Amino acid sequence: MRIARWAFTVFLITPLTAPLRTASAMPRQQDDSLAAAARRAQDKKARQASSSKPAKVWDNDNLPDTPGAINVIGPDQPPADSSAMPGNNAANPPAVDPKTAAANRSAAEGDLASAKNKLADLKADLDVMQRKYEMDQSSYYGKTNYAADKDGAAALASEKADIDDKLDEVATAEKQLAELQSKVDTASADKPPAAK
Q1: Rounded to the nearest 5 degrees, what angle is found at the Cα of 178, between the Cα atoms of 130 and 96?
Q2: Which has the closest alpha carbon to 119: 176, 40, 193, 78?
Q3: CA angle 115, 129, 132 (to 5 degrees)
Q4: What is the pTM of this model?
Q5: d(CA 12, CA 71)
Q6: Which residue in 47, 100, 101, 195 has its CB near the most CB atoms, within 10 A?
Q7: If pLDDT is split at 50, 70 and 90, which confidence band does 41 have?
Q8: Residue 184 CB: number of other CB atoms within 10 A?
Q9: Cα–Cα nearest to 166, from 119, 113, 134, 116
């Protein structure tokens, strides 16, 4: 009876396990087909790349004889500074009229002096504004309930914005002063030697 039971069980289980065996074999076939498809795609891509337009090979037969026909580096660029141009030799600068040079130099020195005065005034104003801001700030934060003082906070913010604007003005004035100083230096270099 045991054998009959065992045979009956095997008879019932066999149809159930058959799909499992074919299912386990299926992914392997699918993996093989995916790998084969990937290989085929790579081979096709390699064939297309090799069959595309071949690279140009230059030799003596197909090189042009005219100079400048092959341009590997690029077009000729104009010189960066004008002193390298023909006729503008740095060793031989163009002649400057002494009266014009003196007028240019004195005008540049006058502009430089006024720019220095303007910068000094701006820095003095900035110093006063910063000191006032520090005093107002200490009196504002010295209050016990300073967070409730909205007018004081707005006044401090306004003063801070004015200080930032004045800092921008000082930076602009310093830049203008540097430009004028370079002009004066250039005019002084053009100064003709004094007669003895």
Answers
A1: 155
A2: 176
A3: 155
A4: 0.45
A5: 84
A6: 101
A7: confident
A8: 20
A9: 119
Own/partner pairs for 71-79, CB < 8 Å, 24+ apart?
A: none
Per the CB < 8 A criterion, the answer to whether 180 and 111 are in contact is yes
**Are 96 and 190 in contact, with CB atoms under 8 Å apart?**
yes
Indicate the length of the chain as a whole number.
196
Residue 50 or residue 44, greater confidence: 44
Count of C-beta atoms within a 10 Å radius of residue 99: 8
- Of 132, 110, 99, 76, the residue nearest 180 (C-alpha): 110
Q: Is the predicted pLDDT of residue 128 greater than 90, yes or no?
A: yes
Quote the longest CA-to-CA distance of the chain.
143
What's the rounded Cα separation, in Å, for the pair 47 and 41? 10
Mean pLDDT computed over 34-44: 85
d(CA 109, CA 115): 10
Helix axes 150-189, 98-141, angle to 10 degrees: 160
**CB 155 within 8 Å of CB 136:** yes
Within 13 Å, how many C-alpha atoms sit on residue 164's CB side? 6
